[in-house]
Design brief:
The radius of gyration is 22 Å and the shape is globular. It contains 22 helices and no strands. The longest helix has 34 residues, at 399-432. It has one domain (2-432): Proton glutamate symport protein (Orthogonal Bundle). The protein has helices spanning 2-5, 8-20, 23-43, 50-60, 62-88, 93-125, 131-139, 158-164, 170-175, 179-195, 198-224, 226-241, 243-248, 250-273, 279-285, 287-296, 303-313, 318-331, 334-350, 357-371, 380-391, 399-432.
Length: 442
């Protein structure tokens, strides 16, 4: 009953219209115009007083800050109601238990593979070993850096940490943005709704449907700001850092992008040899979702279009897609995990810190734990990275070196995050044998 009422087509209709209006092309144009504008402002910075220059740059960056604020404001209620409705529209609790166990193992596996790819490519390219860039960075770094390669979670506190995963006060978890606690609470509510008669759960499901519609209206408003937001954020960053900083980071940028391509190839291998699907047909069907994800840097914002694409174009059963896609938007961030691995190696090279095996394992564990429950909103990767760097003894101040190019990389890794969610949906759909027909037998 609820599976029929929960129709992603209605939620994704305006997202389709944005793709048809070539928002992604406008974003690319805005990206280059932002770099050009920022470079010009930096060039003529001495022609302005410090007050006027800072005011001008702040006003240019205003659309970007508004975009981020709108997305961050609405992501918590959107993810909560999507997870609840996705679970409660399932066929049975037994089916969801079976699916949930497989999805959990799959997400951890792909995250480990993504970080491993990042470490491997970083070992080959060795970003950050440029002597001039290293001297400039280490000159402002602390003279004595004590690595914390043995940092971890003591076993005696592990039971307490597990208990703390469940929110004692869900409203507090929402106000503090504790996404993992919110997702767990939403899953419990979804299972509870699935366990009671439909007549009793229908009023609450109707309320959640209305909340989701309201959330998507706010997302729609935010999408209209996407080109201006990218222009403002890139122009502000370039004006403050200079285009030389962006050019000097090309080794790091190319390493991240090459790693993301490696993760994409890994997904295509999974589709071909595990799910028995045609990878090229898969890419052609998800093109619109990828373009919109690139435009917005938010997997949560494009979640309705992702679900519709999974069901309509990839033949994924709705009971699978409406469980996996909202869950994957929150806890399946392979692109972000790879980025964190590469950024860690890059900054370790900059500061002359050697990463041993225990340090790398700590990065893997921390990246998985930090990525789970992080909101699929722009800029969240840089926040997670700060915690990872602290754990292995790299000064968090090194993040300032990569902020200038983070916006571009954020757009790229969001594409991989969304692609990973759709890949997971197709693979799980095949394993559950709900609709085992191939996409296209070419």
């Amino acid at each position: 009953m609820f599976a029929q009422r929960f129709n992603p087509k209605a939620l994704a209709k305006h997202l389709h219209s944005l793709v048809e209006k070539k928002v992604w092309l406008k974003v690319l144009i805005a990206l280059f115009l932002g770099i050009l504008t920022g470079a010009l402002l930096k060039e003529f910075q001495n022609s302005f007083s410090t007050l006027i220059f800072n005011s001008l740059v702040n006003w240019i960056g205003l659309p970007g800050k508004l975009f981020l604020a709108l997305i961050q404001m609405i992501v918590i209620p959107l993810v909560f109601v999507s997870v609840v409705r996705g679970i409660s529209s399932g066929q049975s609790i037994e089916q969801l238990k079976k699916l949930g166990l497989r999805v959990g193992i799959y997400f951890i596996f792909t995250t480990v593979i993504a970080i491993t790819i990042g470490f491997s490519i970083s070992a080959l390219i060795k970003p950050g070993q440029d002597a001039s860039l290293a001297r400039e960075a280490t000159s402002s770094a602390p003279t004595a850096i004590e690595t914390n390669t043995t940092a971890g979670l003591p076993l005696d506190t592990l039971p307490t940490k597990i208990v703390e995963l469940l929110p004692q006060n869900p409203l507090v978890a929402m106000t503090e943005g504790q996404m993992l606690q919110i997702v767990l609470f939403a899953m419990i509510v979804g299972f509870a709704l699935l366990s009671i008669p439909a007549q009793q759960s229908e009023p609450l499901m109707t309320l959640f449907a209305s909340i989701q519609d309201v959330c998507m209206i706010v997302v729609k408003w935010a999408m209209y700001l996407a080109p201006l937001a990218v222009f403002g954020l890139i122009a502000e960053t370039t004006a403050r850092s200079g285009i030389e900083t962006l050019a000097g980071m090309m080794g790091y940028v190319s390493t991240v992008i090459l790693g993301l391509v490696g993760v994409l190839l890994f997904y295509l291998l999974l589709l071909r040899f595990v799910a028995k699907q045609n990878p090229f047909h898969f890419l052609s069907k998800i093109r619109q979702v990828q373009l919109l994800a690139f435009s917005t840097s938010s997997s949560a914002a494009v979640m309705p279009l992702t679900m519709e694409t999974a069901e309509k174009d990839l033949n994924v059963d709705p009971n699978v897609s409406r469980f996996i896609i909202p869950l994957g938007t929150t806890i399946n961030m392979d692109g972000t995990a790879l980025y964190q691995g590469v950024a860690t190696v890059f900054l370790a090279n900059i500061f002359g810190i050697e990463l041993n095996l225990s340090s790398m394992l700590l990065v893997v564990v921390t990246s998985i734990g930090a990525s789970i429950g992080s909101p699929g909103t722009p800029g969240v990767g840089i926040v997670i990275l700060a915690g990872i760097l602290t754990n292995i003894g790299i000064p968090a101040t090194g993040i300032a070196l990569i902020l200038g190019v983070d916006r571009i990389l954020d757009m790229c890794r969001t594409v991989i995050n969304v692609t990973g969610d759709l890949t997971a949906a197709v693979v799980m759909n095949y394993w559950m044998k709900l609709k085992p027909r191939p996409l296209n037998a070419r």
